[in-house]
Amino acid sequence: MSSLKFTLENIDKVIDRSVMVAPEIDPKRATLLVMDMQPVCTDPDGALAIPSVGGAPSGKDTVEPVERVVKRFREEGSPVIWSQWGLSPEGLDKGICALKWPALNPGTPESAASWGNPQTDHFAGELEPREGEPVLRRSRFSVFVGTQLEEYLRELGTEFLVIAGITSANCVHATTIDAWNRTYKVIVLADCTTAVPSPHTHDVPLGYGQHWEALRNIQMNYGDVITSGELFERLEAAKKPGKYQRA
């Protein structure tokens, strides 16, 4: 397991962030999407536990930053939408997962990825949706597929879609692409997400592994990759006179 520390300095060493789609963020037009913060990935004993590789956060490392972001959005009065990924224990929606992840036994009652399993049904740490915060359950990587997300974002008047959660190389990446296709300004929080490493990416230098490749791809093509600290700075900047009129 990598011992490299995940820092803002490390991000800039391996990701070119010279072009941003959202250098400023209006909290009144921003929605937070919390993706798949489930023990199956965040718990060190989870079936899809994510270690730290190449300086990326472990699954457990993402919980506290996500908790802080949720708290801040609630303080701002900005909407929070939650999503969970899982599969039917009857196997009716297992799709390609059954072929790619046979060791997880997708689509069976025994699978940790099946609904009804505590690793999939629950949220990590102190994370818990409040009344009025929708929870979208789905069986595909993109949160836009098979859910009401697009309708909710439209009704909320969302311009900026802030994404926190797991995993950067699968569900976050797929959702970011779909959001780009719908012209949302996407902001992915690098310290609030990570990815399951490939078998050959253990003990590798800074910037290697699925997490970093996904973030580089997102930053290059689809949206902004920033830290939760940078997000808070942008939200604070929005309060300055001459920026956005606050109700």
TrEMBL record:
Residues 31-203 form the Isochorismatase-like domain. Keywords: Hydrolase. Gene3D superfamilies: Isochorismatase-like. The keyword Transcription does not apply. GO terms for molecular function: hydrolase activity. InterPro entries: Isochorismatase-like_dom, Isochorismatase-like_hydrls, Isochorismatase-like_sf. Signal peptide: none annotated. It comes from the Bacteria. Pfam families: Isochorismatase (PF00857). Belongs to the isochorismatase family. This is Isochorismatase family protein. It comes from Paenibacillus naphthalenovorans.
